[in-house]
């Protein structure tokens, strides 16, 4: 499983669900096998994707879901650039009704991206047991 370990404590940010530092064993295996990638994007880019869904469909997605929306948008733009037709699926896992403060900060230009320090990530990873993958 991809994780930063049990001793990792991320700072409080605008979207609590995004603070979870692990991925399910199934998702981890898909990433490890190269079937799925797990990109990261800054808060302003992901909420831009959520805002696009709101404007086009009237749905306010949770910031967690906005990661998937942003990824789907990027895949669609890449397909358009390549002149290819693709079927792109994403999971809309939750509404953003309790995350309106994050959207308000984004739309008012007050949202600050937070980059977790690389040294702190390495420190947490150093405490993980070494496991050989088959």
Key attributes of the depicted protein:
134 residues; mainly alpha; 5 helices; globular
Give a brief outline of the structure.
The chain is mainly alpha-helical and 134 residues long.
Shape: globular
Span between N and C termini?
Answer: 13 Å
Strand percentage: under 5%
Structural class comes to: mainly alpha
Total beta strands: 0
Helix-strand pattern: HHHHH
Unreliable stretches: none
Largest pleated sheet: none
Mean pLDDT score, rounded?
A: 78
3D architecture notes:
It is a single chain. The chain has 134 residues and is mainly α. Helices cover 45% and strands 0% of the residues. The chain has five helices and no strands. The protein starts with 24 loop residues before the first helix and ends in an 8-residue tail after the last helix. The relative contact order is 0.17.
List the helices and strands and how they pair.
Blueprint: H1 25-32, H2 43-57, H3 63-82, H4 100-107, H5 118-126
Helix pairs in contact: 2-3
